[in-house]
Every structure is written in structure tokens, then in C-alpha cells.
Amino acid sequence: MSSKRTPHPPSGPRPPVHLSSSLTISDTAQLTGTHTIEIRSESVIHPRARLESSVGRLAIGRRCVVHERATLGAAPVSSAGLGRVEGVEVAVTLADYVTVEVGAVVEAGETVVGEGTVVGVGARVGAGAVVGKHCTLTPYTEIAAGEVVPDFTVVYSNGLRRTDKRGVAELKNKGMVRQIDVLRRMIPSNPAKFA
Amino acid sequence: MSSRRPPRGEYIETDTGNKVARKATLVGTQNIMLGGKTVIQPEAMIRGDLIRTIQAQPQSASGAAPNNTAVSIGRYCFLSRGCCLRPPGRLYKGAFTFMPLRMGDHVFVGAGSVVQAASVGSHVHIGARVSIGEFAIIKEYVRILDGTVVPPNMVIPSFSIVAGQPARLIGEVPEGGHEAFELRDLYKTVGNNPQPMPI
């Protein structure tokens, strides 16, 4: 079956990586590009997640979960956006406790996703956008390039927004710790492959 | 990758009639149950590795192996290109666990859709680019239109048509509209020697 086949070899050069020893990264994750990819402790990278560092450095914080087929550091769709594409220092910054769900895309170009934010299924964060802390981007949301989303915002895919006043940020982070604990036992980790 | 091989069929056809594309990504195949006559198109993905870690009742002392099925799919299901099935996960009694994803017969999943439901009944049509949130329960004969976002924990009753973000009930399947959910004919149109769709 296909899972027993060797995964596709990454196209292009292997990027330099800076991986914490306590992270979980599936060996079918795809790391491409030329700049450094830094992933801090206890983060989880699911199979078939794509991390591209061809534009600039990727910095992924502690206890982040990047689900399958999510793409970090994708080339921006419209280069006319506000985000600078050429010569950026850090292409994508994920703070701690960020979840990037299935098929979501975070474009490259000094894009920042704040602590505890959930980027929903198939959502797209444009180049240079700054998403605040503890935001929820519901499935198929589009955040325009260069946009600034304040902390605790819930963004719906039809454009509606509201502020999350539940005050459950702490609980959500605790839940993520438990989730990561389970995922770590479930996903065979192979950081040596990327080093 | 496949160019190095001698030309072979695009699909692997099993004895029970499943047609699984060689380019589909099935993770944790030992935990995926296919009922038979199911089509899995290229680039579809099933996460069978996310198994349940906490059993609801303690296992009987007979020493039976725990049921580790993560994703079970009935007969005549059709998983289109680029869709993704993954078991939902949540906190249960203070610990995180994934729960099995159960799918009935004649379920169509459109291209690019992500299904994280707890259960999907029989004769369900899920359109393209649909997101089904965690622990949603979809009953029989439901039609979910393209681009719908079904929120987590939603229960969709039988014979409903839903659409929108978030999903809302927009209508009911008309009388005699059940036949449109049959996927036997669609099953024959894919595979290594596809037949034309009967008119």
C-alpha cells in the first residue's frame, strides 16, 4: 500500500534545520527551501505537512501542531500584496500553541500567527498578515495580505468577525498539551531524516 | 516515482472490489476498514494512525484485542480526489483521545473535502471543498452542497439538504429523490478498465 512506499524525495535543496530534540515530526513531512527552518520544543508536524523556506526563515514556536497537508511559507498568490516577498528575514513566524489545521496555507513574507491561534481547515493567511493571540480562523477563511487581526478575534469564512470573550485561552492551551502528548505516541517521529 | 515502474493500472483493485488509487495516501492502513466496492481516488488521504487511546468500557477479561479501527467505511463509497478523512479527537475524562470515524454505504465525498465527523450515515452526498467539523453526526440521505462548513458537533437529520458557512438546513430531499444517492453506477466508471456511465 502507499503508506509503505518511500515518500517523495523533496524537490530542490534540503533546507538547514534547527529542530528541538523533543518535537514530533513525521518522516512524510516535506521540508523544502534554502533558509533555516526552526521548530521549537514539543511541536508536532503531521504526515504530508509542507514547510517551505524558499522565501525566508520559518520559525515555529513551542507546542504547535501542524496538521497534514498544511503549507507554511507558501509563495504568495499575489505578489502585489502588502507583504514584502523579496529579502525578508523571517518568512513565517508561528508563536507558541498554534494549530494549523488540514490543508491550511500560511503564505511567506513576514507573516506572524500569534499564540494559541487556530488556523482552520483550508484557511489561507496572506503574506505579511499579522494574526493576533488566541484567534480562531474558521474553515476556508481568507486573511488578506498585510492584514492585522486583533487578539481574540473569531473570523468566519463569510467575512463576519466577532471577539472571543469566553476567556478559555488557558484551558485551550492545557488541552493542546494533552493532545500533543497523545500525538507524540501515535506519529512515528523521524527528525534525523531532516537533519 | 511511478515513471520508473512498468505501466500499471492507476488503481489497485482488491478481491472485495475496492479500487484504491496508487497515489492515495493511506496512513495506518491496519486501522482502516473498507467495506468493499469503495473507490479511493488519487491524492485522497485517510488517517488511520489516529486510533482511539481510551476505551469507553474497560475491556472484558477475556483478553480480546481492543478494537483499534480508526476509520471504517461501508460499501460503494466514493472518495474523490484530494479529500481527507480523519478521526475526530477530543478530551475525554481528562485525557485526549481520538474517536473512530464511521461511514455508511453509498457515501460520496467530493474533491478537497475534509471529514472529521463522528459518524456519516448511508446514502450521504458530500460536495466539494466541504469541511465537516469534529464529532458532527450526519444521518442517512443527506446532501451537503459544495463549500459548506459543518461546525463541530452538529447533528444533521435524515433527508436534509444543508449549505452555507456555517451549515444551515436549506431544504429536504424530495419524495423519490433517493435514487440519486446510489453510487453503483459511479463505481463502474472508475478503475483500470472504466465503463461509461449508463444513461
Quick tags:
heterodimer; A: 195 residues; mainly beta; UDP N-Acetylglucosamine Acyltransferase, domain 1; 8-stranded mixed β-sheet; B: mainly beta; 6-stranded parallel β-sheet; Trimeric LpxA-like protein (chain A); Trimeric LpxA-like protein (chain B)
Provide the structure class of chain B: mainly beta
Give the topology string of chain B: H per helix, E per strand. Answer: EEEEEEEEEEEEEEEEEEEEEEEH
Mean pLDDT of chain A: 87
Order of helical and strand elements of chain A: EEEEEEEEEEEEEEEEEEEEEH
Q: What is the domain tally of chain A?
A: 1
Strand order of the largest sheet of chain B: 1-2-5-8-13-16-19-22-23
Q: Please identify the oligomeric state.
A: heterodimer
CATH architecture of the domain at 9-20 and 33-44 and 75-188 in chain B: 3 Solenoid
The tally of strands of chain B reads 23
Q: Mind summarizing the main beta sheet of chain A?
A: 8 strands, mixed
Shape-level CATH architecture of chain A: 3 Solenoid
The mean pLDDT of chain B is 88
Largest interface: A-B, 29 and 35 residues
What's the number of helices of chain B?
Answer: 1
CATH-level-4 superfamily name of chain A: Hexapeptide repeat proteins
Strand content of chain A: 25-35%
Helix and strand arrangement:
The complex is a heterodimer of chains A (195) and B (199).
Chain A: E1 17-19, E2 24-25, E3 30-33, E4 37-39, E5 44-45, E6 50-53, E7 57-60, E8 65-66, E9 71-74, E10 90-94, E11 99-100, E12 105-107, E13 111-113, E14 118-119, E15 124-125, E16 130-131, E17 136-137, E18 142-143, E19 148-149, E20 153-155, E21 161-163, H1 169-186
Parallel strand pairs in A: 1-4, 2-5, 3-6, 4-7, 5-8, 6-9, 7-10, 8-11, 9-12, 10-13, 11-14, 12-15, 13-16, 14-17, 15-18, 16-19, 17-20
Antiparallel strand pairs in A: 20-21
Chain B: E1 11-13, E2 19-21, E3 25-27, E4 32-34, E5 39-40, E6 45-47, E7 71-73, E8 78-79, E9 84-85, E10 89-92, E11 95-98, E12 101-103, E13 108-109, E14 114-115, E15 119-120, E16 124-126, E17 131-132, E18 137-138, E19 142-144, E20 149-150, E21 155-156, E22 160-163, E23 168-172, H1 184-188
Parallel strand pairs in B: 2-5, 3-6, 4-7, 5-8, 6-9, 7-12, 8-13, 9-14, 12-15, 13-16, 14-17, 15-18, 16-19, 17-20, 18-21, 19-22
Antiparallel strand pairs in B: 1-2, 10-11, 22-23
Organism (chain B): Chaetomium tenue
Protein name (chain B): Trimeric LpxA-like protein
Protein name (chain A): Trimeric LpxA-like protein
